[in-house]
Amino acid sequence: MTLLFDFVTSLINRMRQVGTDLQGCEVKEAVVKLPTSVLETISAFANTSGGVIILGLSEKNGFRPAQGFDATKIQTAMISIGDCFTPIIRMEVEIFPFEGSKIVVAQVPPIDKHERPCYITAKGPIVGSYVRTGDGDRRLSGYEVARMQEERKQPKYDLEPVLDATIDDLNQDVLNAVVNRNKMITPRIFGKMSSEEILIKLGALVKINGTVYPTLGALLAAGIYPQQFFPRLNITFTVYSGTTKAQEKDQIFKYIDSKQINGSIPEMLIDARDFLLKNMRSGAVIEGALRKDIYDYPLDAFREAVVNALQHRDYSPEGRSSQIQINLFSDRLEILNPGGIYGPASIDDNVHGISSTRNVNLSRLLESVPYEDVVGNKGYVIENRGTGLIQIRSALNRELMPPPKISDYISSFSIVFSKRRLSENECSHKRAKDLSEAILAEFAKHETLSIAEISSWSGVNRRTVSLHLNRLVDQGKLERTAPLRSPKQRFRLKI
């Protein structure tokens, strides 16, 4: 009891300091009776991470004890009020002495995700469901209620047949690759089946009254142009000059570049990557005899974040009107997709690789869809082992960058990368000694090299390269192949 009382006291002191309720704590006077708003607060806490309701304090009087508060009466009312919800809520409700008076403290537990939303029974789930935001309670939208109810069963929107489409709307080369990979992985089952049978088993095709239709998952994974049927199942990539979407003073445009990225998921991955490369800063450092390309945002981390968004976004009929958004600001890159984390997995769980897949059929197909990265390495779109966030954190860590900022809402999920800065260690690779050694090592591979060739290879400007070459000539390690000011000047190792 002492620990709990100390915790409650600390909450009250914090509210006095900030002058308002907290994300996890709400104060009600409740002098005469329980206010109707307490029902909304209980629902809101139950649908998030739980919380504490303190009754008998006056917020308008600086969170001081409310005059005329009947602690015993309010405690009894709070104990029974849990029956007014679906599912029923059982709270811990206690009376505490506080500053010469008494207060009632109720601890509202969070409801398991598969039981949400917790709603006021008399109002029903659409009108009676709330969520906690900041220091207040907000009624859930119908879309948010539907996403919560989705947790009770495995969504199968990616298995829906698209009746306006035909098999000719799918890329045959991709389908063949999917069939061949599954024959190789599971020869006993798929070895003697026809391609059509295999694709039906994999959820890529559906046969209705003798006619074969592609599923939504097949169009996304292997469609020639899925946006013909679902115009908003794409990516909007926007580049802003500042740190917000607001238009800067004296700017003609709110943004400096924007692109609607369409096509199948593997095609959108490639186009998004190329658009990022076009719009972000790149450079290089010298490590030994090698040039290391440096980007504002690691391509491996970006790819994983985008494929996670495409794989796990909400494909319900309500969600098909929303696009994935990629916003590149001057200080960060953010990726936002419809639908929060599905199932029992959480952001912390993903640190350990716990996987919970909203779109099981789509994910299975993407495991067999070929993909080639920016340097030509061939593989498949996803591994589907619940390691996406782990790989993102690992890629950022390798580049000495901070972890991403991740926000999981009911209706959306976002991941934000901070813009990269060169570390002191990386900057040190540009020191004269390192660059000179790298230049000499490169000359060992070539008979002659020009200033322009070395500048292009190293990523260092021509003036700096020229200074290093002249110094190496003076040291007797290199020699010129033409007079000093000749436009045909090249260099070679001095024998």
CA radius of gyration is 30 Å
Terminal-residue CA separation? 85 Å
SS summary, helix count: 17
The helicity comes to 25-40%
Low-confidence parts:
426-432
Query: Rough shape?
Result: flat
Largest sheet: 6 strands, mixed
* Beta-strand segment tally: 24
Strand content: 15-25%
Q: Biggest sheet: strands side by side, in what order?
A: 14-13-17-18-22-21
Overall pLDDT: 88
Kindly name the structural category.
Answer: alpha+beta
Plain-language structure description:
It is a single chain. By secondary structure, this protein is α+β, with helices and mostly antiparallel strands. Helix content is 34%, strand content 21%. The protein has 17 helices and 24 strands. The strands form nine sheets. The protein has a six-stranded mixed β-sheet with strand order 14-13-17-18-22-21, covered by helices on one side. Strand 11 (205-208) and strand 12 (211-214) form a beta hairpin. Helix 16 (451-458) packs across helix 17. The N and C termini lie far apart (85 Å).
Keywords:
495 residues, four-stranded mixed β-sheet, 21% strand
Short summary:
This protein is α+β, with helices and mostly antiparallel strands.
Ordered list of secondary-structure elements with their pairings:
Blueprint: H1 2-18, E1 25-28, H2 37-46, E2 51-55, E3 57-58, E4 64-65, H3 71-81, E5 85-86, E6 92-98, E7 101-108, E8 119-120, H4 124-128, E9 130-133, E10 136-139, H5 142-149, H6 172-185, H7 187-190, H8 195-201, E11 205-208, E12 211-214, H9 216-222, E13 235-239, E14 257-261, H10 265-279, E15 282-287, E16 290-295, H11 299-312, E17 324-328, E18 332-338, H12 360-366, E19 370-372, E20 378-380, H13 388-398, E21 405-408, E22 412-418, H14 424-428, H15 432-443, H16 451-458, H17 462-474, E23 478-480, E24 491-493
Parallel strand pairs: 1-2, 13-17
Antiparallel strand pairs: 2-7, 3-4, 5-8, 6-7, 9-10, 11-12, 13-14, 15-16, 17-18, 18-22, 19-20, 21-22, 23-24
